[in-house]
Write a structure and sequence with these properties.
Length: 254
C-alpha cells in the first residue's frame, strides 16, 4: 500500500514509539492524526509533523468514536491504524502488601488490550466500507503493538504480559475475519527499545538488559520500530502475523 496522501491514525502518538511512527508516516506523505491521552504531548507532536493532534482515551467508546470522527472530518476515512497506546507498570502477584491489586490488573488489561481492540474494531468498520486502493484489493491496514513480554514476561509483569499476549492472540483471528474486506491485521512485538521510559532507568539496569540481547548489543531505536511499521504497510503479503523486533533477546526471569 502506498501511504502517500492516505489518512492514518496513530494512538499513543504523544511520545516514544508512537511519536516516532507519526514522524515517519508524515515524512512519507501520509495525513497523520496523532491520538494520546496527554493533550500537551499530542499537540506538540502534531505541530512538529504538521498533523492533527487529538486527545483520546482509547479505553472509552465515546472518546474513541469522537476521535475517529474528528480525524475523518480533517483527513478523510482512515486507511491505516497504528496502535501504540499502552502502559507498562509492574507488580508482583504476591507482594509485600499482599496479593496483586485487582483494579491495577484490570487497568493494564483495559489500556493495553481492550484499548487496542476498541480502536481496531472502529478502524475495521470504517475501512470495510471504503473503495479498494489497488489491484490487490486492499482497503486498509491495522498494526498493533505487543511486546516480547507476551512470550517471556519477567517477574512483576503478569498484568503487562497478559495484556500483550492478548494482543498477539487476537491478531490472527482478526486478520482471518477482515480478509474479506481487504483489511490486513499485523502485530509488532518490540524488545528493548530506547524510549524515555527505558532510558530513565539506572544505567546498570539498562546494561543488564542489553547484556541479554544477542545482536546488536544495544537498545533498539524508536526509528527502527517506525521503519518496520512502514514496511508492513507497504508489503501486502504481511498479514495475520506477530513480528518480533528484538535483536534476538530472550528476557530473563528478572
Amino acid at each position: 500500500m502506498d501511504i502517500k496522501g492516505l489518512a492514518v491514525i496513530v494512538t499513543g502518538g504523544g511520545s516514544g514509539m508512537g511519536a516516532e511512527v507519526a514522524r515517519h508516516l508524515a515524512k512519507a506523505g501520509a495525513k497523520v492524526a496523532v491520538l494520546d491521552i496527554n493533550k500537551a504531548n499530542v499537540e506538540a507532536v502534531a505541530k512538529e509533523i504538521g498533523g492533527l493532534g487529538i486527545e483520546c482515551d482509547v479505553t472509552s467508546d465515546e472518546s474513541a468514536k469522537a476521535a475517529f470522527a474528528t480525524a475523518r472530518a480533517a483527513h478523510g476515512p482512515v486507511r491505516v491504524l497504528m496502535n501504540c497506546a499502552g502502559i507498562a507498570p509492574g507488580a508482583r502477584v504476591v507482594g509485600k502488601d499482599g496479593p496483586h491489586d485487582l483494579g491495577f490488573f484490570s487497568k493494564v488489561i483495559g489500556v493495553n488490550l481492550v484499548g487496542s481492540f476498541n480502536m481496531l474494531r472502529l478502524a475495521a468498520a470504517e475501512m470495510s466500507t471504503l473503495d479498494t486502493l489497488n489491484e490487490t484489493g486492499e482497503r486498509g491496514v491495522i498494526i498493533n503493538t505487543a511486546s516480547v513480554a507476551a512470550y517471556e514476561g519477567q517477574i512483576g509483569q503478569a498484568a503487562y504480559s497478559a495484556s500483550k499476549g492478548g494482543i498477539v492472540g487476537m491478531t490472527l483471528p482478526a486478520a482471518r475475519e477482515l480478509a474479506r474486506f481487504g483489511v490486513r491485521v499485523v502485530t509488532i512485538a518490540p524488545g528493548l527499545i530506547g524510549t524515555p521510559m527505558l532510558l530513565g532507568m539506572p544505567q546498570e539496569v539498562q546494561d543488564s538488559l542489553i547484556a541479554t540481547t544477542l545482536f546488536p548489543k544495544r537498545l533498539g531505536l524508536p526509528e527502527e520500530f517506525a521503519k518496520l511499521a512502514l514496511h508492513v504497510i507497504d508489503n501486502a503479503l504481511i498479514n495475520g502475523e506477530t513480528i518480533r523486533l528484538d535483536g534476538a533477546v530472550r528476557l530473563a526471569p528478572k
